[in-house]
Amino acid sequence: MPNRWEPSAMLDRALARVNGWALDAVQPxxxxxxxxxxxxxxxxxxxxxxxxxxxxxxxxxxxxxxSGVKTFVLRPNQHWRGFxxxxxxxVFLPVGDETVRRYYSLSALPKGRFSITVxxxxxxxxxxxxxxxxxAGMNLKIxxxxxxxxxxxxxxxxxxxxxxxITPCHSIVSxxxxxxxxxRPDIQVMAQFRQAREVIFSETLxxxxxxxxxxxxxxxxxxxxxxxxxxxxxxxxxxxxxQHCPDLLDRDIYLCGPTGFMAQMIxxxxxxxxxxxxVHTERFVVAEPPASSGAVFETAGAEVFFQHxxxxxxLTESDQGKTLLQLGLDHGVLLESGCCQGxxxxxxxxxxxxxxxGNSLGKAVYLCTAYPASRNLVLDA
Length: 381
Description:
This protein has helices at about 5-25, 30-35, 40-45, 125-135, 165-175, 200-210, 240-245, 260-270, 325-330; strands spanning about 55-65, 70-75, 90-95, 100-105, 105-110, 115-120, 140, 155-160, 185-195, 215-220, 230-235, 250-255, 280, 305, 310-315, 350-355, 355-360, 365-370, 375-380. By secondary structure, it is of the alpha/beta class. A seven-stranded antiparallel beta sheet has the order 4-3-7-1-2-6-5. A six-stranded parallel beta sheet has the order 11-10-9-8-12-13, sandwiched between helices. A six-stranded mixed beta sheet has the order 15-14-19-16-18-17. Strand 17 (about 355-360) and strand 18 (about 365-370) form a beta hairpin. The longest helix is centred in the first third of the chain and has 20 residues, at about 5-25. It is globular, with a radius of gyration of 23 Å.
């Protein structure tokens, strides 16, 4: 029986070659000039990758990265303006009759390409569709890069990650290693996976170690007595953190991974007296609503100071039950926001004084899904 989608796939691949050639041979601003002056309904229907006002990305390659993990190499169209290592994009996936939105970190590639690395979730609607349907030649609508999970110039850093949380860390470290050795920071990487066959970017981690970078790969399914190499560790805990990173207190920490992993690491770091203000986090899961504590915080008269904007607001009775993001916006404070589901981190700030409830991790607070919980609250970027 013939493959029903083969003609469509052939057309996709043919158009992909033409579109890739156009973007490689012509400056994006000239591509934009040409297509904007030749925009017709037919052009938009026939080749909606270039003849469009939307930012889109063409799938050029699909790579099996590890067990249950694929990397998609993408070529953005002329509306792309680049990104900072550690940032992420919103991807719009046509799953069935609906459009599903997900956020993925970016890894830079030569010639204007980038990649996203996706781990298939057992019940993941989006990742399952990407594994089964997304192929080379297809294109996707994407959002512009966002997020603040980027290196901020610290001299000593530890990248602490698990699973697909290694993706933004991989992007940042790769960029830092392109700097002259005298200018790059002191970098250490600790990455945890369940077993050896699930290690993402395994060849890169090995290469980094061979090049002199201190890299520790932790396998949560490995017993301590099975550790046979100096750069191998069992499940990470406070003892492992101290053993493999004895100067932990001197480093800024970039933390990314599954929710449970990050929560555990925050507790271990707190127990080791790490300044949580130096722990920078990233997450890509919808925040769960806060559990009821039985006591409702009375907002009337409480103050919130957005230190990075030098904006102080005094809350009223009508502010009861509003998120920090909504409070700021309602009082005229121009706050950045993205998904408004506690995932993308665009609205994320750091608690300097006071307390919050809801979506927070260490000192990091996601304004769109968090609430004030003290009479005086100071937040900063």
